[in-house]
Amino acid sequence: MSIPVVDFSVYNLSKKDATGEQLQTLSEELKRAFSQVGFVFLENSGISQEEVERVMEISKKFFLQPEELKKPFSRKNFQNSPNHGWVSLETEKLNPSQPGDLKEAFNTTSFHPDIKWPSSDAVRGFQEIHASFFQCCKELSLRVLRVMALSLSLDPDLFLHAHHFIGTDENGTTLRSLYYPPLRSETAKEGQLRCGEHSDYGSITLLFQDSEGLQVCTRSGEFISAPSIPGAVLVNVADLMQRWTSDQLVSVRHRVLLPPVGDSSTRQSLAYFVQPDNEALITCFDSSNKYPPITGGDYLLQRFSESYGKN
């Protein structure tokens, strides 16, 4: 099994709209991918490789700074948005049963005027570059959500109604810039990975990566390596979407392995985690009650308590 590749050019960010026939074809391709694999590569999305590299470049400059320059921007330092900010190495355990992940991250979750951003000469443009990319990802995500609703023969705006507040403190959608520093695999703790095995929390995730290392679990339980395709965005179904669709679309586990012995290269990726609005009530769309209703905000807090600990 491999991850399907779909051409999104008929509905990419440069197009105002697509014809009904084009959307129908696209929706069938996405449904096949999301119901069988849970992941799909979108080519020609309208987000360029140059835009991706720009965010990665400014992010890397931030990550390479001494820790004392990053600490003022730590996650949980921001009252309006407790998930916004820098996450230090080994702080997060995406697989709570294993040691902390060997990665750093910067979460862009809030644009509240009181938020303090990195602004030294070394990272000039940090806020503007992240804000611009956040908006591009938002627009692409809304298009994908619309096609997903069509693929299930639903009102095309059904999912959009629960994503009105992306980019505000009423919604937990996050652009996460990830940096995996060089390491010697033999020095890692037992069971430790660059990113522990997990499934994502919200509606969908967009992922842009600069190298291989990501593995995706198939429905048979086997992990397969996801290639790195320059210019393509890897999109996956997340847990709340699986609940919402009564398991018609599947959220699958994935992980980032340690580099091979002798490979000391870094790895970077950008993940755009799309969350329903905090107050949006997620119920099975077919009225099956297969999963109990839960709000987007409550579910997110529940999952954060598992990956960061109760405190």
How does this structure look, described?
With 311 residues, this protein is of the alpha+beta class. The chain contains six helices and 14 strands. The chain has an eight-stranded mixed beta sheet. A hairpin with a 5-residue loop joins strand 8 and strand 9. The longest helix is centred in the middle third of the chain and has 26 residues. The chain starts with a strand and ends with a helix. The relative contact order is 0.17. The model has no long low-confidence stretch (mean pLDDT 94).
Termini gap? 40 Å
Approximate helicity band: 25-40%
Would you identify the regions where 5 or more consecutive residues have pLDDT less than 50?
none
Structural class: alpha+beta
Estimate the global geometry from the Cα principal axes.
globular
Radius of gyration: 19 Å
The secondary-structure element order is EHEHHEEHEEEEEEHEEEEH
The total beta strand count reads 14
Strand order of the largest sheet: 1-2-10-7-12-5-4-3
What's the overall average pLDDT, rounded?
Answer: 94
Total of DSSP H or I helical runs spanning 4+ residues: 6
What percent of residues are in strands? 15-25%
The biggest beta sheet, please? 8 strands, mixed
Write a concise synopsis of the structure shown:
This protein has six helices and 14 strands. It is α+β, with helices and mostly antiparallel strands and 311 residues long. The strands form three sheets. An eight-stranded mixed beta sheet has the order 1-2-10-7-12-5-4-3.
